[in-house]
Fold:
Amino acid sequence: MDITEIFKYAAVVWREICQRKFKVAFVVTLISFAIMFIGILRPPSYSSSITIFADNQNIIKPLLGSKASVTELKQNRSNQVRDIIYSPRILSQVVDSVYGKNAFPTPLAKDIKISQVRNNLTIEGRSGNYIQVSYKDDSADRTFEILNKVVSVFIEDSADTKREESRSAFNFIDQQAASYKSLLLNAEEKLKSFQSNNFDGTEDEVNNRIASLRASIEEMNIQIQESNTRVGSLKRQLSRESKYADNNYESAVYNSQLRELKKQKAALQVNYEDSYPAIVDINYQINDLEKVISEIGTKKSTESSVSADFNPLYEELRSLLSAAQVENRTLLNRLKAFNRLLDESYERRKRIANNKAELSELTRDYSVFQEQYEEMLTKKEKARISMVLDIQGQGVNYKLQEAATYPNTPIGARFIHFFIAGPIVALLVIIGIFVAKILVDSKIRFSSEIKNIEGTVLLASIPHATCHSESKTRRLHNTFLLLYYIVCMSGYVAIALAFKYGASLDNIVRLGAF
Structure:
């Protein structure tokens, strides 16, 4: 659409407005007053903000190192602050402090007010550790008071929470340390009782004892075999000997001496002659022994033997057999005793194995409890130092970086904006209505539209002409319309001034009616 078309439509719209000027004036007045009353009814909105700085730098932490921990902020500080401030616990304290504890008749009314305060609060994270808290309300005093109260309650609650957290951590670790101490003393008492009631020794001692007993038993078995052999040999010898000795015992003795002398003589004769003095002496001894033997033999033949003496060899063998049997029985008894000691050692080794497992369990429990107790003592000391740091204000502290300013000027659309926008919006609405009517209406308003009708020829275009009576009537209507606009604008401005300077809504309504 070119500029000429726009001007043509503008002329048509102006003509339509002029034809319905009184209706248009009434609609414009109605819309203007409606927009102004919206501005009057709409309360002003005041806003103020406070900047908080989260200070987590202190000189204590580098000095203490890992011996103590100070309470630090989470990574997303603005979310943490928002969650704390938006909590019913904080907002309930703020509402009670600003409005009073008994200001709300029901808990529901208080909850509604808390929701309103929460919706009007805005918390945003700035660069670094800076956090901005803003609040808006329809009252400047209430905005300033609630904002300061919210921030002060938050800072106090943050400090109290840190101290309570450190104190709770210290108390918890203290309880755990006492619990582990009790467990440690109980495990130590069990270990002492076990060691005082078990005297079986160590496994190495028992193994050495078993090895020694086995060696002794093997050696004893050999000795018993030897003893059995000796007893058997003595029994066989004793069975071949007679209990009583014969009467030629004396002659047997001399015969034995004679045989010895003859052996000596034979040995000397190998090297010497018979005239050798030693040989001659031996011959004399031989002759004497032969005479004695001969005399004994004659004597025995003439005397009858009425009795026999005990055989001394038999007695000696019998004595040796008895001693060998006693030794054999002694070895057998010792073997039984050693076997019994070996069985007891085996049982002792079983007990030691069981006791070793129980001792390992008791020792393991004691070691675990001791380690945990020492660790808890270390943590307890760290928690104590951390609690002292939080009590003294170390760690993370929220500080007021920029205090709240009193909101003297409301924010957003104010009454002056509604006052100015009333007539402008009313005119735009009227123009928009007539433009829409022209576009939708099927009447032919331009000569160019006739040319577009098929089979129709435009001969001439006659402009609208106004006669004298129409001009006189239009001037009269314009005069009444001007007076109407002067009256309406006077009332419009009067109502605006009355509201500006503090008149109540009832007075403004009465003023408008008058």
Notes: The mean pLDDT is 76.
